[in-house]
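Annotated sample (chain length 620).
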Amino acid sequence: RRPRSTSAAPGRCIDMSGGFRDSFTKDDAKEDLLGYDDTASYYFAITLLICVAVPWSCAIICSAASRFQAASQGHAPRTNSSGCRVHYCATAVMVAKVEDTQRRARSWTRASACCWMLKALVFVMLWATICGMVCYLRTSGKKDINKFDPFALLGVTAEASSTQIKRAYRKLTLTFHPDKNRDDPLAASKFIQITKAHAALTDEHARRNWERYGNPDGPQITKVGIGLPHFLLQKENSLLILCMSFFVIIMVVPTSFLCYYSSARNRAANGVLIETLQFLGCYINESTQMEMCPEILAACAESRSMPLRPTDNEHIQRLAGHVVEHKRRSFSLPIVMKNQYIVWAHLQRRHDLMSPELRRDCDEILRRSMIVTQAMIEVACMREWFAAARAMIDFRRAVVQALDVRSSELLQVPHFSDEHVVVCCRDCSGLTDFLALGADRRRALLGATMSPAQLADVEAFCSHVGEVELRAAIDVEDESEIVVGDVATCHAVLARTHLRRDEAIGPASAPLFPELKLEEWWFFLVEEGERILHFERSLHTDSRIEIELRFQVTRPGRRTVALHALCDAYAGLDRRVDLAFQALSEGEHRREYPLHEDDVQLDLQPTLFQQWMGADVSRT
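Output written by the structure step:
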């Protein structure tokens, strides 16, 4: 035996346990492959697949649960997120619309069915692979990673005698001797292992090393790596593995990143295309009115991506003779002109003049209009233009209710026409006044021109919309006076008086809108000069909406601000509250901040530097 050296010499590898051995040779690699154990690769593969399968399984279960809920309720749930029972509009058109939404939610399209089948197939194959690997490990008996076992290498039992060990060793050496197996490159490595196994069972020093270190040669270098299968380490497969690695690293990963980046960088956080935001930022100004909004919607990037068919020209010309444009066109692109005619035709309720293709385009534009109009409102709010923001909200609810620029608010009532508006104008001027009328008075006004079923729809509409009340107050938290520099808070409460505390408002009555639309309320705190101090958007559907708007008091004196609550689903439900308060200057009212006794004692404690220097704080 070669004596061990106490210092590292050239050509030697330092063992992590403190020992040394000869440098690695080609035979070492053959020996490693010969004794390589695939058990670790199974554990590694099972762990990796479980890390993918478990989160994906949770996602599939949640998706299936939501799909089941959508199949049973569609987009019309019985309760909202707060647990309140949703109050739906009981008009015949809205009942049919809700049922159609539920039916479409329960139905399967070819694309969705193929997608779910593919997911189910991959899901089953993934778990089948995991279960197969676990069963293989259980049935094969490979519960632990193989270690150096001299008895297994010699093919004898642990109770074998020295004679049996020598006989087995002699037989195996004759079988795997390198001189007899010149064509087998692993025969020499096998011969070395057999020799080591014999030494571990016959030589006392080698046996102590085996029992203590797991190897007859003593401490070995610890090798840490990923448990890869055996075929990945074979030399003949190295070229294929290298090509596949380069393909994944150079092609798949960069392509996936570029695809995700190209799709993500085109849209903002609210889902609107960046091109649309740039267009809105350039086109919207402080004097933008509702008449300009149809063209803005028609010219945005979402609308310009709509298809332009050769037959659209003929259909648009037939539609153009019956549509009134309240603003001269600024864009002459064919797709923009087509979309603008479609939007004006929807606002003027000329859907009967649209071809089936144009009607489908109209529904698609209306679906995309919600995120676009929201971006239009946000652009105006960020620039503190209340008049422009209110014009955008007016256009948003006009799109939902199919109201023209100069149309009456009463046209939102089911079965109403211009003749009914003329009849009701004697007693009411808007939707709020019409809702305030009693049921008997409404029947008296409309009974001569409407059937009992139509009157029932009108009453169902009135009971669904109901009346709203807005209350607000301004104060400074924990203070009795408002001083310049304070951050004042406006506490606003919007109550739907026709709903109980455990009820929530359902989708708005919008029969001409292609989807179910929930009410949204925009709260604006506006000072003199129509400048927005603060704004909030509320998506709550409960019977009571509580919201806080904060602003900084900048000048003293008598101040008056207006709180506006604007509904984006109905025209005529807006509320306004004027709030007056007295702001004192800093000289008129000096703030006193009392010190707590614990804070006073804390100031008397020595700092870390004073403690280190040994200073006596009590003398200072």
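Annotation: The CA atoms of residues 484 and 553 lie 5 Å apart.
Annotation: The first strand starts at residue 12 and ends at 14.
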